[in-house]
Design goal:
By secondary structure, this protein is α/β, with parallel strands linked by helices. 43% of the residues lie in helices and 18% in strands. The protein contains 30 helices and 33 strands. The strands form twelve sheets. The protein has a four-stranded antiparallel β-sheet with strand order 6-5-18-20. The chain has a four-stranded mixed β-sheet with strand order 12-13-11-14, covered by helices on one side. Strand 15 (401-406) and strand 16 form a beta hairpin. It starts with 8 loop residues before the first helix and ends with a helix.
């Protein structure tokens, strides 16, 4: 049955994927003929997730490597699975409960709510797995892991896995070794979800903000001479002051101030360092006094040079407070409201006053328990409290005053009046990436990993070369983060997740054990209550390599895949996931988790802009697959995967690679229509043809095989894709198919047979070499073009090399191709009518060139549209010279084109080009453009300049040729 005219991806992809799965093509060890193992761990997508371009790109690269190694006969495992995604899943299920008018999470209670989560997971949690299959991902789906498998309350189909057991065991072991502890530290707090969150879950967004300037009066009405000097030490301003001025973007946090800090070198405040000043808010009779201290943190050149220190609500202040022993007073509850608990404000303020005078010392817990929010502010939302604080301070006359009123730009207009000094300025504000509310730095009790005790081996593994991070810039980032590592907060105030295996008695003593029974055994006769918090998902996913392989119960069938081979992931989670996997695996099993780490950036749009819903440039990979097929998307992903490069996804490029697939299909269809595959039964041997063109294409095939292998070995996916594109489209589809036509149509029986055998072999090699990148169309052609012993996914990867290159055939065919391309180039530049056959003159030609012409005259004439060849001693006027190895030719064009008109056209085009180029280069020389333009605009401008230079060179070459005709 003849081949279809086109490859119908929409119909074929599902059918082919089902055939692969049914045949068990993806299971661990499938097609293995070698003992060597190769394993990739999929970065587990959230169970709530849907396929986005980052997933599509990342998983394409993994699949290319897995398919390539599997075809080499290596024992491969691509381990799939999903992450339980604590906050995201809890949010999705709570929203579902609301939409379906079911009781809320708190109305249901913890146990019933978790049942709802498992129900949701069973119905909707596998969405992204099905979408990855549409991409062609060849994971061993029989081993699909889930980071909550085996947890308490899991349904029967999720109870078999032991990932939960592994997580709990690691926690207990690390706790017992003193590597995990409970403490009070500053964390990112999401008031909507009422939980700590990681830095990765925080989006810092520039918003319109305000900077308020306030006076903190000196205690007892003391005064000092405030002096400002210029660089030469000359006094430029001096006045007597009874206050110190500070500026803040969050006035509501003033209630929790523990000190005011100035830089040790700041002479302006030297007279008052060590004094007490008054927080200018709250009941006047209970105003708190706080010390003025020195610290390296304040910048003398920013604002007033003095900063308020609120250790419980600012990360920088927290460090200052820790260094200076300053008490940290928490002002807000879990919802972001001003605290309403504890003793009356008068009592709390009196205790804090004793602390400020050095009469009393508070423990961390005692300071945290102290509620220093005045009664008038208690229970208010933090932003409402901000308004009240500003209004009250201003009403009391303790705002710094300046002449005039700020205009729309935030600058002061001097009109004689005095107004509070408020700067309108953009500020970076942290938002929860899911809740979209402002994140509050909050001092809370959390569980931490003492990372300082486990970071050393993870650093050494990279420094000594056991683990290689690519690109090299990733190593620098890795070192920077781990050399400056802080304790890792691993607890979350959620219900969905691995509940922390620690129980408390009435006195607060801790009992850590895998089960309640074991904890109770440690505390006979005591009533225990389990910690309600769950573990951060980064803690469980940090155990992904060993947890998915069955640790601590792994056997040789799974342990053999560890350490894994390569991790391919985004550079944005180098610290959050990669570094933590390194630390955790080394701490638990004393082995590195992988040998290579390939980091890539964000997939951006064609102009290099970050994709976002707000800008409307988000590209859905499933829509691309629907329109262009998975192969086109996969090839695009591979082609743009330059190590460390910017990932720009261009829809035109995707369309072009779909056309590439069509080109391959048409070449195979040509071969099939000409009987190339009739009776074809490949036995793994390479053809031994006698025709020059057949020898040449076999050598070209050997060359590209070596290039592809070398590129994939070094993760240069783009080089592999580009080499295959140039070979398949250029060498095979364009040149070889054309060169073979006279041999297939007019050759003798032996020539036809060897050409058929060669073409069938070459097309097979195209399919094999392309399969890791374009699995669907290649598998379809493989099954269409002949009876096969096995599917292409398990075909043997070739090992032939440069020994197949025939030097003489290679030289001759490259001479022929070079001559044809040069003739075509001249014709295009000179605007010679496409269908016109031209006479050509031979000026000189050596014996090798003459032989090459004689053997390929028909091909050259047909493909270059040459009418005849005449040998001459000199080229007449009006000829364009064409150089070739060992000779020179001429094309008489004076009577074919209008030289004057063509010259005018080229000169006009060059003038327009020069104007465009001048404008573009002028932009790049303009410092304001470089400073203010987005990076993607600057990069686009530089690319355009390079393109225009290439165009100019081509046009100038054409003008030079025209000059020879005059």
């Amino acid at each position: 049955m003849p081949m279809e005219k086109n490859f119908d991806a929409a119909k074929a992809e599902t059918r082919l994927y089902e055939a692969w799965e049914k045949a068990g093509c993806f299971v661990a060890g499938a097609n293995a003929s070698r003992a060597e193992t190769y394993c990739i761990m999929i970065p587990p997508p959230n169970v709530t997730g849907v396929l986005h371009m980052g997933h599509a790109f990342n998983n394409t690269l993994q699949d290319i490597l897995i398919r390539w190694k599997r075809m080499q006969g290596i024992d491969t495992l691509w381990q799939p699975g999903t992450d339980h995604a604590g906050i995201a899943t809890q949010m999705v299920v709570e929203r579902m409960l609301t939409e379906t008018q079911q009781p809320s999470r708190r109305e249901l209670g913890r146990e019933a709510f978790l049942e709802k989560v498992w129900e949701w997971k069973a119905k909707s949690g596998g969405t992204i797995v099905q979408q990855l299959k549409r991409l062609g991902a060849s994971c061993d789906w029989t081993r699909t892991a889930f980071t909550m498998s085996g947890a308490e309350g899991a349904p029967a189909d999720e109870a078999e896995g032991n990932f939960h057991d592994a997580v709990i065991k690691v926690f207990v072991d690390m706790y017992n070794k003193g590597l995990i502890y409970r403490g009070k530290r500053l964390v990112n707090w999401d008031p909507h979800f009422e939980t700590a969150i990681s830095d990765l879950e925080v989006e810092n967004i520039e918003v319109a903000g305000h900077m308020w300037h306030f006076k903190y009066p000196l205690a007892g009405g003391q005064t000092y001479t405030y002096v400002e000097k210029d660089e030469d030490g000359t006094v430029t301003f001096s006045e007597e002051r009874d206050y110190i001025s500070i500026a803040t973007t969050r006035p509501e946090t003033m209630l929790g101030d523990g000190a005011v800090a100035v830089h040790p070198s700041d002479e302006r405040y030297a007279p008052i360092v060590g004094m007490l000043c008054e927080i200018p808010v709250g009941p006047k009779e209970h105003r708190r006094l706080i010390p003025i201290i020195t610290d390296e943190y304040p910048d003398p050149n920013f604002g007033s040079g003095a900063v308020k220190i609120t250790g419980a609500h600012d990360f920088n202040d927290y460090q200052v407070a820790k260094r200076g022993g300053i008490p940290m007073y928490r002002l807000m509850d879990t919802k972001g409201h001003m605290r309403a608990d504890g003793a009356p404000y008068a009592e709390a303020a009196a205790i804090a006053q004793q602390v400020a005078r050095g009469e009393v010392e508070l423990t961390e817990a005692e300071a945290d328990a102290l509620n220093l929010v005045p009664e008038d502010y208690r229970g208010l939302d933090r932003f409402e409290a901000r308004k009240r604080v500003v209004a009250d301070i201003s009403a009391e006359g303790l705002a710094v005053m300046v002449p005039g009123a700020p205009n729309e730009d935030g600058n002061v207009c001097f009109d004689g009046g005095m107004v509070p000094f408020v700067e309108n300025k953009p500020i970076m504000q942290p938002f929860g990436d899911r809740s979209k509310v402002v994140i509050e730095p909050m001092l809370t009790d959390q569980w931490f990993v003492d990372t300082s005790k486990i970071v050393g081996p993870a650093l050494d593994a990279v420094r000594n070369g056991d683990v290689k991070i690519m690109p090299e810039s990733g190593e620098k980032t890795y070192y920077h983060w781990l050399d400056n590592i802080e304790p890792w907060c691993i607890s979350r105030q959620l219900w969905w997740g691995h509940q922390i295996p620690v129980w408390f008695d009435d006195e607060g003593n801790q009992y850590c054990a895998p089960t309640e029974e074991e904890a109770q055994a440690q505390a006979p006769g005591k009533t225990l209550i389990r910690d309600p918090d769950v573990l951060d998902t980064w803690f469980s996913s940090g155990l992904w390599p060993i947890g998915t392989l069955g640790w601590p119960h792994w056997d040789e069938s799974t342990k053999k895949y560890f350490p894994t081979s390569v991790l391919i992931t985004g550079q944005d989670i180098l610290f959050f996931w990669v570094a933590r996997m390194m630390m955790m695996q080394l701490a638990v099993v004393d082995q590195i988790p992988f040998h290579d780490v390939y980091l890539h950036g964000l997939v951006r749009d064609a102009k290099g802009k970050k994709m976002s819903k707000s800008t409307g440039n988000v590209i859905d990979p499933l829509e691309i697959i629907d329109e262009y097929g998975a192969d086109a998307l996969r090839f695009t992903n591979a082609a743009m995967a330059s190590l460390g490069g910017v990932l720009k996804l261009d829809m035109q490029r995707i369309a072009g690679y779909r056309n590439f697939g069509t080109k391959l299909w048409n070449a195979a269809r040509f071969a099939e229509m000409n009987g190339v595959f009739e009776g074809y039964a490949p036995d793994g041997t390479v053809p031994q043809p006698s025709a020059t063109v057949n020898k040449w294409i076999i050598g070209e095939t050997a060359r590209v095989r070596e290039v592809v292998d070398a590129a994939l070995e070094t993760y240069r996916f783009n080089d592999a894709a580009q080499a295959l594109y140039a070979f398949v489209w250029g060498k095979v589809c364009d040149w070889y198919v054309e060169f073979s036509k006279p041999l297939l149509l007019d050759g003798d029986a032996a020539t036809k047979a060897e050409t058929s055998a060669t073409m069938a072999w070459v097309i097979d090699q195209c399919l094999i070499l392309l399969h890791p990148i374009m699995p669907f169309i290649t598998e379809e052609l493989w099954g269409t073009l002949g009876a096969r012993q096995k599917l292409l996914v398990h075909a043997d990867w070739p090992t032939y090399g440069a020994d197949l290159v025939d030097a003489e055939a290679d030289r001759e065919m490259n001479w022929v191709i070079g001559l044809i391309e040069e003739i075509r180039s001249v014709r295009a530049q000179m605007h010679v009518p496409a269908g016109l056959h031209l006479p050509m003159l031979q000026l000189e030609l050596d014996a090798a060139g003459r032989a090459a012409w004689d053997r390929n005259e028909t091909l050259i004439k047909r493909l270059a549209r040459i009418e005849s060849l005449t040998a001459v001693n000199a080229l007449p006027k009006g000829c364009v010279t064409i150089a070739a190895e060992g000779g020179a030719f001429g094309l008489p064009l004076a009577d074919v084109i209008d030289v004057v008109e063509e010259k005018a056209r080229l000169e006009k085009t060059l003038q327009k080009l020069a104007k465009e180029l001048g404008g573009l280069e002028g932009r790049l020389k303009n410092p304001k453009f470089i400073e203010s333009a987005p990076d993607e605009v600057i990069d686009e401008t530089r690319d355009l300049v390079a393109q225009k230079h290439d165009e100019r060179a081509t046009l100038n070459a054409a003008l030079e040729r025209l000059a020879a005709l005059a």
